[in-house]
Amino acid sequence: MNIVDRLARFMVVLLAWAGLVFLTLPLVIIVATSFTETEFLKFPPVGFTLRWYQQFLADPSYLSSIWTSVSIAGIATFFAVVIGVLVALVISRSELRGRRALNTIFIAPLILPTIVIGAALLQFASAYGFARSFFALVVGHTVIVGPYVLRTVLASLERFDQSLEEASYDLGGNAVSTFFLVTLPIIKPGLVAGALFAFIISWINVELSIFNATAALMPIPVKLFNYVQYAVDPMLAAVSAATIYVAVIAVIVLDLLVGIDRVAVSQK
Amino acid sequence: MRIRNLWALILIALPLAFMVIFFLIPFLVTVVASFHDADGAWTLANYKKIFADSYYPGIFFTTFKLSLIATVVSFLIGYPIAYYIVNMVKSRGIRRLCYVLVIMPLFTSNIVRSFGWLILLGRQGLVNQTLVALGIIDRPMPILFTETAIVIGLAYILVPFMVLTISSVLQTIDRSLVEASLDLGSPRLSTFFHITLPLSLPGVIAGSLIVFTLAVSAYVVPAIMSGGRVVVMAMPIFDNYTALFDFNFGAALAVGLLVITLILIALYLLFIERGGARRIARQS
Question: Which CATH superfamily is domain B54-283 in?
């Protein structure tokens, strides 16, 4: 390698790591400032205290928001898994006409602006009397997280050796037993990865929730959004840091489960 | 395993009904509402209002400008990361670490990510402190609540998408082409500019369109980073639905944003098709 190439390689490494630091810095800053002893946001933090975490854990409105978010994400993920598996099975294992159109309809929420989906849902829900309800939030979240499950399950279904399913039939299995004893165990890692993605996408969503949330029914990101526009203080950092810990755990689980590099290639 | 058509229909019935009721019909209801006035009579007034004066076209222009800059910035930051991960990292451990760092921001909400920049970009924030310490500026400059802040916030959100799209394109590039160029004595740098970069370009453009679509419809990031001082397209949609309660005009704005998005997606598909055709031509 000549000197110019060496220099170029060095520059790429430098730029790449600068970029990775850029991606990590805001999250690190939030976690660091959440431990500050000062009454205002300070970086680098002064001293070390857990009082902002205690303050937010003692506030029932935050706990109820977290609970709202977890229930919405849990229920929406469950529905998304059921829908995703059924649709993926039909797309990959049947000869039904219009399978491509089916795929487009179920994947569409991924590409269309979430804020428009949220507005449309509020418009529809107001016309039929369920605006700003838990039900509206759950169906909206199911719609937007569905594609994450469908995509990973579809990829898993199309990747594995279908002669395994045929063998099950030859051995006297029927469609149901073949699905539960052969297909499901094989697609499980993809399914779990998709479900994890779905849960997280719901857990961090603001743009859809914000239309159908109320003071009594407020997912945690919406609560943070309302708060951040009026005041920024270390308690906000503590709540935000708590959501970052959830993200860290989710990424680690994903890595242990299927290997983050494989997920990264299939998710974009 | 083959599913017979009857069973396929039975399996798909409920999921499809769900999507029709809670996804397709809400869009139809919104489109219809955009052509209605408050009393339910048919009208084009909502759309005329958008083009009545320069206010909404101005917002449209600002949104496109900021989204374009943010897309270019996220490409400039994302490409080296993707290139590094795909072509230079040898150990799987480090590659996994890189992907963890890329995906972790994707798993935190836009609020939290913007809040991080709120701390960083303040007058006493790390960015200003560093710039002053390095002697680049004399005293802290206002960055927050400006268009620059929106661009930084948007680019930050978009970089992970850029990295994932570009890295998946870089992986499909035939390594033997690169090796052939190196064997023929061409330096790595010119190999990159003559082989790798051109081959990855269709994917880059496709990725940029997706990222641009996300930027155009962003609401949370511009709202926080500008403190409401800069208005982008998503903001009046939200205001009309939740504060002004003018659902009909809100619907017209939402349909407008939807149409813009669909045009961008059509462009994206066009590039994917052409990229695909080119790949087939290369292989044959």
Answer: MetI-like (1.10.3720.10)
